[in-house]
């Protein structure tokens, strides 16, 4: 439709397509917003790869902020979801099933 906008009035194109003007501009904005966070997605992916998937959204947000870029943690969390990046949870030393080093030395 963008190609025809130079040749025909927008109102005529919308009438033929059966679209409301608001729907057209909403979809146009959605397409542009998809390209808005390309650099941030690359930065998040790079940080995740460098730390072998052990950084969650909080630590990735802190790393990006320490580099001097202002970014909201919710944005990082949403983009990590889109990129299907999830931090690995390391096994806890005190969690269930953990073996303590001094457990074998105990006597009852």
Keywords:
Transposase InsK for insertion sequence element IS150, 2 domains, HTH-like_dom, Transposase_IS3/IS150/IS904, 5 helices, single chain, elongated, 108 residues, 51% helix, mainly alpha
Low-confidence parts lasting 5 or more residues at pLDDT below 50? none
Content-based structural category: mainly alpha
Range of strand content: under 5%
Task: Please tell me the total number of domains.
Answer: 2
Oligomer: single chain
Instruction: Output mean pLDDT.
Output: 85
Portion of residues in helices?
40-55%
How does the major sheet shape up?
none
- Series of H and E elements: HHHHH
Please, how many helices?
A: 5
Q: Which outline best applies?
A: elongated
Return Rg in Å: 25 Å
Give the total of beta strands: 0
Q: Could you give the distance between the termini? A: 80 Å
Model description:
The protein is built from five helices and no strands. The chain is an all-alpha fold and 108 residues long. The protein is elongated, with a radius of gyration of 25 Å. The protein starts with 9 loop residues before the first helix and ends in a 26-residue tail after the last helix.
Describe this structure in a few short sentences.
With about 110 residues, this protein is mostly helical. It has helices at about 10-15, 20-35, 40-50, 55-65, 75-80.
